[in-house]
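queue> holo job accepted (adenosine-5'-diphosphate)
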Amino acid sequence: MKLTDLPYLSSLRAQALQKHGIDSPEDLLMLFPFRYIDRTRVQSLSSLQGEQENITIIGTIKAIRDAGFDRKKRVEIILQDKQGAEVKGVWFRGGGYFKREYKTGEQVSFFGTVRIFGRDLSMAHPEVERIRSDREIETLKRIVPVYPGNSEFSKARITHRMLHNWINRILEQLPIQEFLPESLLESLSLPVRNQAFQAIHNPETMEAPAAALERFKFEELFLFELSMARLKQVCIEPLEGHRFSGPGSYTETFLNDLLPFQLTNGQSDALEDIRKDLTSGRQMHRLLQGDVGSGKTVVAAGAILMAMDSGYQAVLMAPTEILAEQHYHTLTRLLGELNLEIRLLTGGQSSRLRRDLLTAIEGGACDLVVGTHAVIQQGVRFRKLGLAVVDEQHRFGVQQRSAILGKGDHPHLLAMSATPIPRSLAMTLYSDLDLSTIRELPAGREPVRTAVRTEKARDDLYRFLEQNIDEGGQAYIVYPLVEESSAMDLKDATLGLQKIQHRFPGLEAGLVHGRMSQEEKEHVMGRFYNGELKILVATTVIEVGVDVPNANVMIIEHAERFGLSQLHQLRGRIGRGERQSYCILMPGEKVGNSARIRLKKMVETGDGFEIAETDLKLRGPGDFLGTKQSGLPEFRYADIVEDQWLLARAKESAWSLMRRDPDLSAPEHRELARVFEPVFRERAAWFGLG
Ligand code: ADP
Ligand code: MG
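queue> job finished
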């Protein structure tokens, strides 16, 4: 059966459908009603108690007439039921049609809302249906689906009724194949496919569609998990990787002699996970999650040194120049005594420096490259890349992740993230990665005290700031970045600096923002780092990873404009040293409802996982992750926040099925294999595999 077999499907209508992704009869079946009208209630007028919505009334037409003048001109049909009670149907427009179509004495039904005017009962614009026999009364009692409308549909005069008729015709003529394993459906009490379609498009009760919808949610979650399972089990797990020899003298010296502190348990466990991966002979794909300040950099350093111990090169990629530079400084400082060649590669470097760098990387003179996206550009060639570390990996797309892996022959991958991805999301997004999580912060850290203050408190706040600096502390003052290139936020931050310099003439203050050159930024950050600058005014460029342990106050201006995770990231810049830290949120004048929830949450908790869960609920998965490239599949029916239970079931069953029948060659999986292939190809391409 083809779409063109449908009655009244003009080319205009076909185009309107196509614009909404409906190319085939199956696509049309997947167009689900967004609500239903319960027309099962047929009532007699005399038993009516007051006004009532959505009821059906049956009677005989007693009169059809014009009434009123000018703007009150209308057509009325008086309907009388068996008990002699009357209701008036009223049309202020389009009444002519009813005058032509119906005659007195005919039996009809009105469906709509009954209102009381004086002593009269009336219904405005009821739906009318002719009843030729009492038998037809039964067919009136039904639940009517309402399909989502749009401007193209209405331009092409595609009505609900038309969509419903088309869908029913398709349901009659198209053989609908089940592709999910029967046993699976049974164990989850989900309906088979054609029953589910019936329940969606022709439900017998108002509850029926919701139950059927579960099946379609499960179907898409299952296919998704199945593709993740295949990616992992068939494409990734068997990938051979370089077998490292295990911690040698670099790693040992670092951990035993150079590291100024004891690793936390979380750090040691993560490093142990990594050691196992690196020495297994298979390629590592590991995600290291840990709240801001949990010390992921040191873990990365450990992994990097294991690569050096085995004679490999390593690369560390960070999302911003500031962060890349900071990693570069941290690592050169930490590893200085090991006599390794560590180099920084970013976009803003001179071409001479760059040429020199590329030669060192290709020749193998350079052991570790730290940089931004610049490290995945063409022209960067490694001699023997054994490990790629991607910091703040949620800022990168999977494509970039695989691009960096393409810089070597199956190098190991360590991805790190400070945005703790709620479990539900991690399960769908990162099924291809193994997970290590650092739950604790290094000992001796006092939780940051957080408060919301209004403009009235500004003087007090400045006194507090001054006192804190007198005691040896440093402070950030953060302004929102409205847009990447907007001049406005620059103005805000620049004015902010002037205000501060005016108020604190004796204190050194500096400014960093995204449009400064690399040298300028580096210069200012350096002065803040070594304590020359007491106050750093900044846009959100400092959000990620910046590490100045002595800074212990952060004032966030226009705090209502920041997202929750972003506020948490910013706050993570303080509370890194021994000093008690304070985060003061200064909202502007207009604070909406959800901003209020965000600020409240920030005051209530410092736990990154809890914050992430709330943020995800407030914004939904798409916005939570920010970019399209985050790789979140767009589920049509399922919601990975709401449908966590189903998601967990889908994951379990998909992964166990993939283990039993990895190429879906069993006869009972033939239909599944057919449906799955295109889904899988798309997913695999997305991951740069195939
Ligand atoms: P993040 O996980 O946010 O990237 P960093 O790696 O920047 O955190 O570490 C935050 C700070 O904590 C750094 O100043 C680092 O030197 C320090 N640090 C890391 N591990 C420990 C530890 N085990 N004990 C004490 N301080 C630590
Ligand atoms: Mg970090």
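queue> The mean pLDDT is 89.
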